[in-house]
Amino acid sequence: MAVRREGPGDSMHRDIFSPEHDAFREMVREFIAREVTPYHAQWERDGMVSRDVWRAAGRAGLLGIDVDEKYGGGGNPDYRFYLILDEEFARAGATGPGFAVHNDINGQYFLRLCTPEQRDRWLPGYCSGELITAIAMSEPGAGSDLQGIRTTAVRVEGEGEAGGSYVLNGQKTFISNGQLADLVIVVARTDPDAGHRGISLLVVERGMAGFERGRNLEKVGMHAQDTSELFFSDVTVPARNLLGDEGGGFVALMRNLPRERVAIGATALAAAEKVFEDTLAYCKERQAFGRPIGSFQHNRFVLAEMATELAVARAFTDRAVLQHTGGELSNTDASMVKWWDTELCNRVVDRCLQLYGGYGYMAEYPVARAFADSRVQTIFGGTTEIMKEIIGRELGV
Ligand SMILES: Cc1cc2nc3c(=O)[nH]c(=O)nc-3n(C[C@H](O)[C@H](O)[C@H](O)COP(=O)(O)OP(=O)(O)OC[C@H]3O[C@@H](n4cnc5c(N)ncnc54)[C@H](O)[C@@H]3O)c2cc1C
Q: What predicted TM-score, i.e. pTM, was given to this entire model?
């Protein structure tokens, strides 16, 4: 079954969706038009979205689609529903709500690693939008090199809560949903001598003593999404908030990265396609020297090149999506999707902005906002250079 995209993007006929997916896409579009787009400008001024949109997303079934229905989730493990969500938010330029971090990244940790008791405690709020989540890996001194993290969690046996606790100290930065988050998955070193096997995941909850949020960081783009520093000073985290095994944090992170990377790549590609479609329409309308600007050979070639590059990327990305849906996407292919689509997105948006001339530099034009919003995609979730390192290693060089 296929979804035909509207507008010139129709050439990218896709046969990876069923009518159920199409209906879901339509619902997501309506949700964005009703609950997101009218508030986006205000959220940009506020530097974050309202909690209401999270609860609205929960009511609409957009959070925890793959979580068991008994916790309020959708009970549907098909990854393509999350993909559709990411694509539609990207096409709408709706970069405020951090649903992708919550669903595509954090949800995978909760689903895979929670004990039954943790599921009961966290999943209902996770699905309803009452509990907003963040993941805190990066530190001021360690981003790409996660093994270089300095945040520590020292186990204190049997004191306080039954089962003991951890005393958490350290600092994180660039954390998406950092201001709004109620649950933060903190990556911390529990054994200083055990290398990557000394890294664990602890869930820090809003209000725990010693947990402070720093500034809501001022970014180049994505102004409606909060990104923050987080500080932990002698935070007592009950051992029952350990996610997965002690020392198993690094392996859990590595396991989830392909999902995060295909999601970022697919989001970038959807954003690029939309900007291209809009630009193509503009190039047919806008006149210079008595002709549509798209009819100058140079511009026609630029448009033809972008159409080709996007179509090629679409084929590769859809293949990766199907592989991921079937649980077969390799780390290498996910890295290829991530670097290729995000770099392509930046190139496409940059060339489209040029085609808009001066209007392209005006913030009220979606292409200008896309220019600022997309730039980060080659950086977060693993930089382009790190993606190439992963691919290079697989090549044996
Ligand atoms: C808007 C935004 C949101 C973010 N959200 C989150 C979040 O929610 N949670 C979280 O934990 N983190 C988050 N991050 C952090 C992000 O994942 C890191 O910024 C990223 O991994 C890069 O780390 P770094 O900034 O420390 O750069 P560095 O690791 O210091 O890298 C600097 C430069 O050196 C290059 N480099 C590093 N190592 C190598 C190498 N081996 N070979 C070649 N080049 C190399 C990098 O590619 C980069 O160009 C976010 C960042 C941004 C900007």
A: 0.95
